[in-house]
Design brief:
8 strands, eight-stranded antiparallel sheet, 3-methyladenine DNA Glycosylase, Chain A, mainly beta, globular
């Protein structure tokens, strides 16, 4: 059961924290690939100099401008795909990058890092704009109400963003071995 759209229509930092423990589900040829989200980063919109939307509305960033609850998938370094979910009301252009998953079902490859998790789940640009309330790619609520110890740190790989690079907008589950290494 996918999270409802209203879950995503909130502040990106709140969504990033609350995605921890939820399960990212990808259906490939009828088979499930499921991972528990253990690391995220929030990108707050055009005023956030680390966000792609800071460069304005382009063909690449169009999905970020909403509506919330859609996948924003892009390619970095011409090699790695990164999966984000669009947050906040349409027009704000904020998103949450899912950085790492703990494999739960149907995943045999590494998932500690955004490019690795996309490869393991078969997520690529063909899923850019995919409705996260659909059946092919979605995030399900956590299977239990476990209390997680959440760590906040600066985001990874955004040094170009000046003071925005030092903001504590990376969230991860303390002690989880699947969290990516900076």
């Amino acid at each position: 059961m996918p999270l409802p759209r209203r879950f995503y229509a909130r502040d990106a930092a709140t969504v990033a924290r609350e995605l921890l423990g939820a399960q990212l589900v990808r259906v490939v040829a009828g088979a499930l690939r499921v991972g528990r989200i253990v690391e995220t980063e929030a990108y707050l919109g055009p005023h956030d100099l680390a966000a792609h939307s800071a460069r304005g509305r382009t063909a690449r960033t169009e999905v970020m401008f909403g509506p919330p609850g859609h996948a924003y998938v892009y390619l970095i370094y011409g090699v790695h795909h990164c999966f984000n979910v669009v947050t906040q009301p349409a027009g704000v252009a904020a998103a949450v990058l899912v950085r790492a998953l703990e494999p739960v079902e149907g995943i045999t490859d590494r998932t500690s890092g955004p490019g690795l998790l996309c490869r393991a789940l078969g997520i690529d640009r063909a899923l850019n704009g995919e409705d996260m309330c659909g059946e092919k790619l979605f995030i399900a609520p956590p299977p239990s109400a476990d209390q997680l110890r959440i760590v906040r740190r600066p985001r990874i790989g955004v040094d170009y963003a000046g003071a925005w690079a030092r903001r504590l907008l990376r969230f991860y589950v303390h002690g989880n071995r699947w969290v990516s290494k900076p």
